[in-house]
Amino acid sequence: PGTTSVHANAPSPNSISSPGQQSGPLRGHVLLVEDNPVNMQVAKKLVSLIGVTAEIANNGREAIEQLDRTHFDLVLMDCQMPVLDGYSATRAIRDRESVDETKRIPIIAMTANAMAGDREKCLACGMDDYMSKPLNRFLLEQTIRKWMPVDALNRAGTSDKPRGAQALSAP
Asked: Is 0.70 topped by the overall pTM?
């Protein structure tokens, strides 16, 4: 439980091509998925400083439930969490997007793990990019700007429209 800031690594050739770089003011609505209260507060503050609104989920299951209820432009996903970790949550989100034929939401990993193979593990489960903690405001903004859908610039605030999937339930 230390503080967080972010450094984004150079884009991997294996990462999915970004929807396009934004210029001008950054806007959008993100889902911040983080179980550590200190890391969550730091990330939420950094996100707000760059002009993006955020809602919080404390684990992967909460993230999936919130994605069902609210429109988000992007997800910042911690990898190591109780209940449902970021890897499993991302796989579930990608499976549902495929089944429901919904637009792919960018998911950016936020992890304290910065060892060889961590980026590849994040990309393999369906995440689009990777940032290691502690978070750095400039690199966080650069990464969000890279992945934020261009249409987010034309919207202000949030939408309560569901993404089309049902809440995850046990079989």
From this structure: yes
